[in-house]
Design goal:
206 residues, alpha+beta, NADH Oxidase, five-stranded antiparallel β-sheet, 5 strands, 35% helix, binds flavin mononucleotide
Length: 206
Amino acid sequence: MEFTDAVRRRRMIRSFKDEVLPPGTADRLLRIANRAPSAGFTQGYAFLVLEGDEQEPLWEILYTAAASDHTTADDGAEQVDTLKRAPLVIVPLACKDMYLDRYASPDKGLARDEDVHPVPYWYIDTGFTALLTLLAVVDEGLGAVFFGIGSRAEIDDFRSRYGVPPEWEPIGALAIGYPDPGTDPVPPARPSERKPLSALVHRGRW
Ligand SMILES: Cc1cc2nc3c(=O)[nH]c(=O)nc-3n(C[C@H](O)[C@H](O)[C@H](O)COP(=O)(O)O)c2cc1C
């Protein structure tokens, strides 16, 4: 598939057919994700792959989040009902400590202190891997949605249920499968059309 086609066709897909994925799908997606750039080539990202019953704790956390005010999936429990048909979930995780270490090394020479990092590269790099995964999903003829896991409490719950070390932070999750356009709920967070470049771009000076 042409790169521009993959970019143009990508949409967040929130509902999936009850169809298994071809063997090796997760590995192919993750090999693309791992082509992401990273600040200082720190590669401070990791992925948790969840298939079948392994996903159950995640859905439980999302139902809990949906039942409270600090909701994650925008449409609440109903959205979790459709998301959970996804045969594959990939959770990208970011590790701030690896960036603090990398940038405190002799060739960078910064203090090992979060305050000297005006921009949290750990989230940026992990986000880059998520975007590459979304594009690879399109290239595979599949669909995916990136969604938040919830509040600090739900992220802690996620860590403890999946045995994730405290220094690793899930930035969200990708539900992946064959799109089921017939039942895809109306995207809740898409009230308007994409902004024109004229509303976004400042040339030479803001
Ligand atoms: C950081 C981030 C968090 C998002 N969280 C959710 C979410 O929790 N639930 C959801 O349905 N969509 C979520 N989305 C998808 C956006 O709603 C979607 O990207 C946006 O409406 C534009 O639609 P498109 O990606 O299909 O072009 C998220 C997207 C991003 C980038």
